[in-house]
Write a structure and sequence with these properties.
15 helices; alpha/beta; binds pyridoxal-5'-phosphate; 4-stranded parallel sheet
């Protein structure tokens, strides 16, 4: 049966001329990218600006990692690799496992013991990855993965793999094309700092291609307990409820600083309780995200309070991952379902309809 793929779904086909690929590249895709840019009326009113949310949780495995993974796995296959490896706080492993399965590669993942959200772990396992929990944090898992990839025939698919950043820059292309201009401010969470590096590259290339005439001011937000870039020193025991950004020694540290400096923005930090408030306000607006994603909203509020959001500014906040990945954090000690008798009167009373 002939299959028509002329619709050019997935970031490699859509941005073929802007990525390090050729006709010889076997494209391993799950139709990632092309995610919604959602206008937030409530946040716009709150900060007196035009706030857009780039909802990356709607990628195939529920996070932006898929944009980089389609390219990393396709290139691994092109180069003749038959195994990939990554260290992960969860989403990289979920994405690597899915794309490796799609491409017929074996996949090993190293995760910090006890600190990976249930949904992400389920994804890596269901797609057939070999999941190894190490006694150590993400930074140690990444060190070990790098050492293994140096010495053995396995391709590292963390964001130190340059194809990851290349793939992830396409989110900035989409924003530029959707708005028809660059945002004034771009606000996002920072963990290992690959994604802010990628967005800055994407905006810079979009300007060179004349899709936009400007680039945004870039603001990256770490969690306060995991804010090595803000402190200017490695954090040995990073701690935050936002596990996707619980990273003490970011691999793309320099890329984050470069994005902040060149765009005249900054890397800052937000406390966990403000991340939780951001998470709740997004949920009340119908958007279910990961805690780490809500650092964007906490960051936006901090920027507003410090006078860094001009009235009417066009702002993009990146929502990096889907809330369903972490049901434990979602439910937490919040409200539970109420038990009710199976009759109309009892239900009406609970619903306060009668
Ligand atoms: C990976 C990840 C981040 C952090 O991105 P970096 O590129 O490591 O800075 C933030 N949020 C979510 C949901 C992630 O999966």
């Amino acid at each position: 049966m002939a299959v028509d793929i002329a619709g050019r779904r997935g970031i490699i086909r859509r941005y073929f001329d802007h990525l390090p690929v050729s006709d010889a590249t076997p494209v391993v895709t799950l139709d990632e990218g092309d995610t919604p840019l959602i206008f937030s009326e409530r946040l716009s009113n709150e900060v007196d600006a035009e706030v857009w949310l780039k909802y990356e949780g709607l990628n195939p495995t529920g996070s932006f990692k898929d944009r980089g993974m389609t390219l990393a796995i396709s290139k691994a296959l092109e180069e003749g690799s038959d195994a990939v490896l990554c260290a992960s706080t969860g989403n990289t492993s979920a994405s690597a496992a899915a794309y490796a399965a799609r491409g017929g590669l074996t996949c090993g993942v190293l995760i910090p013991r006890g600190n990976v959200a249930l949904g992400k772990l389920a994804q890596a396992l269901v797609h057939g990855a070999t999941v190894l929990e190490i006694e150590g944090n993400f930074d140690r898992a990444l060190e070990l993965s790098r050492e293994l990839a140096d010495r053995y025939p396995v391709t590292l698919v963390n964001s130190v793999n340059p194809f990851r950043i290349e793939g992830q820059k396409t989110a900035a292309f989409e924003i530029a094309q959707a708005l028809g201009r660059a945002p004034d401010l771009h606000v996002m969470p920072v963990g290992n700092a690959g994604n802010i590096t990628a967005y800055w590259r994407g905006y810079s290339e979009a300007r060179r291609a004349n899709w936009i005439s400007d680039t945004p001011i870039m603001y990256g937000f770490q969690a306060e307990g995991a804010s090595p870039i803000v402190r200017g020193a490695v954090v040995d025991e990073p701690d935050t409820i936002a596990t996707a950004i619980r990273i003490g020694n970011p691999a793309s540290w320099k890329g984050a600083l470069q994005a902040a400096e060149e765009s005249e923005g900054a890397i800052r930090s937000v406390p966990d309780d403000e991340i939780v408030l951001g998470y709740r306000s997004l949920a009340r607006e119908g958007l279910f995200v990961e805690l780490a994603s809500a650092a964007s909203i906490a960051g936006l509020r901090q920027l507003k309070a410090s006078g860094a959001v001009p009235s009417g500014a066009v702002v993009v906040c990146v929502l990096t991952g889907h809330g369903l990945k972490d049901p434990d954090s979602a439910i937490g000690d919040g409200p539970r379902p109420q038990i009710v008798e199976a009759n109309v009167e009892a239900i009406l009373a609970k619903l306060e309809l009668a």
